[in-house]
Amino acid sequence: MAQVVIVGAGPTGATLALLLAQRGLAVTLVEASRSFRRTFRGEALMPSGLAALGHMGLLAMLETLPHQPLAGWEYLLEGKRMFQVAEPIEANAQPCTLVSQPALLAALIEKAQQYQHFEWIQGTPVQDVVHHQGRMRGVQLRDGRILTADLVVGADGRNSLVRQRAGLTLERRSHGIDLLWFKLADSSCLPSENVFYALIHKGQTMGLFRSAEGSLQLAWALYADDPTDWKQIDWPQQLAAASPPWLAQHLQAHAQDIEEPILLSVVVGLCPQWSIPGLLILGDAAHPMSPIRAQGINMALRDVMVAANHLVPLLQQDANPETIDAVLPQIQAEREPEIICIQQLQNQELAQGERLRQNPFLRQMVKLTLPLISGFIRQSWLNRQHQLRQGVTQIHLHV
Ligand SMILES: Cc1cc2nc3c(=O)[nH]c(=O)nc-3n(C[C@H](O)[C@H](O)[C@H](O)COP(=O)(O)OP(=O)(O)OC[C@H]3O[C@@H](n4cnc5c(N)ncnc54)[C@H](O)[C@@H]3O)c2cc1C
After folding, report:
1. What is the pTM of this model?
2. According to the 3-state scheme, what is the secondary structure of 265-313?
3. What structural domains does the chain harbor?
């Protein structure tokens, strides 16, 4: 029976492992971290991501996990509402939904463990890859074990070691922001519980929402052109200064409870080549995604469907290595146009905010004329969202 080794149990690796195991294939999934409770990595699923889970037969499982549909989006400019949009923003579509990622990953692994030929190795990173006669033949774990494979899948995220060891280059795209992530257990200040708030205040931008597990999550954009040393800042005071009164009061009252921020450095890019003989890279390993408008998990799930469509029939027939290798570039060819388009759309969204952030005169003008132009700004935002929510191409799981 063909043996697949998947490196990394993020959304890409965990769902691909489950799909392959469900279809009778031998899969070993290797995850470096001991727990799924790692640094926050986002939990918003767009309708395209929810549809992907639907194709995978996982929506019933989702219902058992901590999750909450968003009620809407609200954009505030220096404390004043610019516009508000209710979810779902398109007719007959699902609302964007927050899903606890640790709970989702744990549930996916638990499900995969029901299959006889699934092996789960947790807490042991892959340290190297194993080549033999011009083809990747497996991986080496930090504890020295060697896992041989007919196909290795690198799903080890944006800093992918597998990608680096395979000599696949990542073309990084300039993004210009990193995020500081704050958590506060008490989210009772939110005027509407499940609304995602985007705040632009003077030269600062932040996003705010209640997570699927109930805490208040606050993302502060750190701009490359801002020389301030974020480690020296009195954050409760700084956050409050950039907030409308309902949030400022809450932050000041809970200043002691605001956890130290976590720096989430944003990597955005695309690999020109996603495979070499014996290896395929997918998800953030092949195309690290910006957090803008919550796309990465959704794109990862769509990569997995396309990969499964191509790989399952071959692996089930024990196809020879040349036949498996020949299909790998087709997976990239099918996925790459959507990834390029979505990354461009994310950049456009970022650029919209940048215009306001960098231009005090424009901010002032928009603020003064909001009663007149709010409807126009709202419609322009709505017009840009369709592909970011539904994806660019039609994808179905055929296997
Ligand atoms: C701040 C921030 C917020 C985000 N918010 C959202 C959001 O709301 N919605 C959304 O759709 N996307 C969001 N994203 C993007 C999203 O998190 C990623 O695109 C997505 O997680 C990619 O999934 P993945 O499985 O490919 O990689 P990852 O989720 O990065 O998973 C890779 C896994 O591989 C493991 N690993 C790494 N190296 C090794 C090794 N050597 N051996 C074994 N295992 C290894 C890691 O521990 C990890 O578990 C956000 C990103 C950022 C930075």
Report:
1. 0.95
2. CCCCEECCCCEECCEEECHHHCCCCCCCCCCHHHHHHHHHHHHHHHHHH
3. 3-43+58-65+100-173+268-350 (3.50.50.60), 177-264 (3.30.9.30)
